[in-house]
Amino acid sequence: MPLNIQNISKNLDDLDYKQMPHNIEAEQQLLGALLINNDLIDRISNYLKPEHFYENVHAVIYELIVKLVLSNKLASPITLKNLIDQDERFNDLEGGKYLVKLAAENTSIINIGEYARIIYHLYTWRNLINIGNEIVNVSYSPPPELSPFDHVEYIEQELYGLAESEKYGSDFKDFSTALTEAIDTAANAYNRDGNTSGIASGFKDLDELLGGLQSSDLLIVAGRPSMGKTAFATNIAFHIASKYKIDDRESGNGKPLDGAVVGFFSLEMSSSQLATRIISEQTEVQSEKIRRGNINKYEYDKLIDVARKLQDIPLYIDETGGISISQLVARARKLKRQNNLGLLIIDYLQLLTSSNRRYNENRVQELSEITQTLKALAKELNIPIIALSQLSRQVENRDDKKPQLSDLRESGSIEQDADIVMFLYREEYYLTRKEPKVGTEEYLQWQEAMEEVHQLAEVILGKNRHGPTNTIKMHFDGSLTRFSDYTANDKLPERFE
């Protein structure tokens, strides 16, 4: 049927099949308002796109209006007529007359924002219908190579894209807004204990150097095996989750006053192993004794008591092995949406895989995509992300075992994409493996050296996008898998008693 003014406006309620949600009148009113006042385009063009229109002719008209206005040209029925006369899609419409009709029958330019929202929302409803149809159709006749769980992940991403498309899209900020945000950050730091603008890690010297863990930052914690990377990350995760407190006053905004909800992707260890580490650190009962059950009644009662106090802290652990970066992103977004995720930890980077099969034979490119995605995710969710990373074996070939940025394994993109790069180093680990024969002069020298570095760890800040680099001394108790601030009196961090 030829397209004309009458059948565009025709009421379709009497048709015997379900029509996709749409509002032709809202589309006509919006286009008419734009033809009358081109300046109105600034109110809606940042989110309303041609594909959001139900009627294809309207989508074309809107696209032409936007192009003319952005070219500093007048968009009117007269100027558009010359363009649409050359478009075969308008052959049966008498385009010139239709444009005049749109402008003439417009009733209000004030409501253009509301018309735009109606059009966009109906577009979203149509997409939901399409996603629903895809679920049904694929589920009835799934391809042999498709896993149902892979399809669930895909659908989750599609739904999230619809839910968050407006939330995270942003236009330019004027400088006054940026200044206000900067002052607010400074005020939060000034009024908070420890003068940290970000989330306090629980380590005093580290927080003083970094100002806490900053939103949208990608932090890399790297080290050779047995340096304590997982223990370090677990200590931070527990401290932040245990301190979580929101402003629940009537006048409050529900934002965290302290701490944060923590998501922990443990690609190597199980959730029970991580829980054992936390319980060991808080009860001072060695994790090895807990695993073996080699504990007395006092220690057992202490474990139960502490476990009872810890069970409600907002620490969520995903122990899925071999997870892809796209799956991680989807689950992080879900945790942000449902539980207000405030910190994400990944243990560890090299165990992630890309969703892009073309990287199967190029691990460097694959890891580059992963780090870029993590940085983008940190900005999108406005949270800090801590990713643990292995170091290359070349460290072991040097006399000086202290790691450097060039030791980051497999990709220079880790250094490039990260805001913060920290290295964990324990001289005690290497000295232990150089023990000379007992009774020799070398043994006495070795003993003295061991006493100097006993339970001593170093956090080497190799890159700091926001400030200076430095090296921080810390205590490390391997039997309790616990890091703590380096103090003269061996003061331990706060624990549940």
Structural class based on helices, strands and sheet pairing: alpha/beta
Low-confidence stretches: 8-16, 489-497
CATH top level of the largest domain?
A: Alpha Beta
Number of helices: 19
Assign the CATH superfamily of the largest domain: P-loop containing nucleotide triphosphate hydrolases
Strand order of the main beta sheet, please? 5-4-6-7-1-8-9-10-11
CATH domain topology of the largest domain: Rossmann fold
Please indicate the percent range of residues in DSSP E strands (runs of 2 or more).
Answer: 5-15%
> Span between N and C termini?
79 Å
- How many structural units, i.e. domains? 2
Short description:
Helix content is 46%, strand content 12%.
Summarize the structure in words:
By secondary structure, the protein is an alpha/beta fold. The chain has 2 domains: 1-10 and 18-164, DNAb Helicase, Chain A; 194-485, P-loop containing nucleotide triphosphate hydrolases (Rossmann fold, 3-Layer(aba) Sandwich), CATH 3.40.50.300. The chain is 46% helix and 12% strand. The protein has 19 helices and 11 strands. The strands form 2 sheets. A 9-stranded mixed β-sheet has the order 5-4-6-7-1-8-9-10-11, sandwiched between helices. A two-stranded antiparallel ribbon has the order 2-3. β10 and β11 form a beta hairpin. The protein is elongated. Mean pLDDT is 79; it is low at 8-16 and 489-497.
List keywords for this structure.
497 residues; alpha/beta; DNAb Helicase, Chain A; Rossmann fold; 9-stranded mixed β-sheet; two-stranded antiparallel ribbon; 19 helices; 46% helix; 12% strand; elongated
